[in-house]
From TrEMBL:
<dbReference type="InterPro" id="IPR005000">
    <property type="entry name" value="Aldolase/citrate-lyase_domain"/>
</dbReference>
<keyword id="KW-0460">Magnesium</keyword>
<dbReference type="InterPro" id="IPR040442">
    <property type="entry name" value="Pyrv_kinase-like_dom_sf"/>
</dbReference>
<keyword id="KW-0479">Metal-binding</keyword>
<keyword id="KW-0456">Lyase</keyword>
<dbReference type="InterPro" id="IPR015813">
    <property type="entry name" value="Pyrv/PenolPyrv_kinase-like_dom"/>
</dbReference>
<dbReference type="GO" id="GO:0016829">
    <property type="term" value="F:lyase activity"/>
</dbReference>
<dbReference type="Pfam" id="PF03328">
    <property type="entry name" value="HpcH_HpaI"/>
</dbReference>
<dbReference type="InterPro" id="IPR011206">
    <property type="entry name" value="Citrate_lyase_beta/mcl1/mcl2"/>
</dbReference>
<protein>
    <submittedName>
        <fullName>CoA ester lyase</fullName>
    </submittedName>
</protein>
<feature type="domain" description="HpcH/HpaI aldolase/citrate lyase">
    <location>
        <begin position="10"/>
        <end position="224"/>
    </location>
</feature>
Amino acid sequence: MSSPAYRPRRSVLYMPSSNERALAKAKTLPVDALILDLEDAVGPDHKEVARENACAAAKSGDYGGREITIRVNGIGTAWHEADLKAACHAGPDAIVVPKVNTAKEVASLVTAMKHFRAPKRTKLWAMIETPEAIVNVRKIARASDRLTCFVMGTNDLVKELQAQIVPGRAPLLMSLSMALLSARRAGIACLDGVFNDVGDAEGFAAECLQGRHMGFDGKTLIHPGQVEVCNATFAPSAAEVADAQGIIEAWTAGAGTGVVTYHGKMIENLHVDIARRVLATHEAITAAG
Ligand SMILES: CC(C)(COP(=O)(O)OP(=O)(O)OC[C@H]1O[C@@H](n2cnc3c(N)ncnc32)[C@H](O)[C@@H]1OP(=O)(O)O)[C@@H](O)C(=O)NCCC(=O)NCCSC(=O)C[C@H](O)C(=O)O
Ligand SMILES: [Mg+2]
């Protein structure tokens, strides 16, 4: 978390790369990252124009400090190889690959990225959205240093599990937790899935909070109207920052005692680590503007 490579990923907005208005609008939105989509949001007749638009956007330098990623079509589809080749040449911050199922697929993707001469800065993000991926998720997470983030595909998971989308997401919690556990063990980031009902502000806020409580780095989004609440929910609040500073001060004052209290609560070394992480996150968000 305190590594220089850490970037805030509270809000990560998908947009269909065939939609030029959305591509333009994204330059004005306070999102941490963008996923320029070539997959599900783009119809078969628009795949080529979407690929050109996404690559042009990634190369343009017009998106400021926002992390720019391209989601290619899945392995085995008619568009996958051409998408991957074009995305590697465009050199975004990351290439997002949907429906990654095995560690072997990660290894093949990394080999292909080298073959297509993707710059070293271009990382791989894997979407975890099938039962097979969940069963293999421990190995997927540690398959390559180039893999730096999991993106949960909750719509595909619901489909494949034959589950239903319900408040509280009980049918998905085991899959979400398994992916998070594996991501944390491997030291990579993990992003929560999307909330489809863009008109349901209350439901969206509750799902953001659930994702924050679970430990996700941030949430993937589908509409500009979701950005503000998501950013606020996944950032440390003013009270959390003040508590983190207070914990570090209390710990420093009691140097060497092994345990102190802050506002009546026990503080040990691990709480100081958490406090430092909160401050590092707050500083990174503030620095990113
Ligand atoms: C959901 C939408 C289809 C709604 O579109 P629309 O009705 O046009 O929205 P608005 O009229 O409210 O739009 C207002 C303005 O905002 C721009 N806009 C809309 N969406 C985006 C966006 N995602 N990024 C950037 N800008 C956006 C509009 O262009 C309007 O701009 P202006 O006219 O200049 O004011 C639409 O929001 C949409 O297409 N969302 C993204 C859908 C998507 O990408 N889906 C694929 C990813 S989700 C997924 O697949 C997850 C995973 O794989 C899984 O399995 O779960
Ligand atoms: Mg999906």
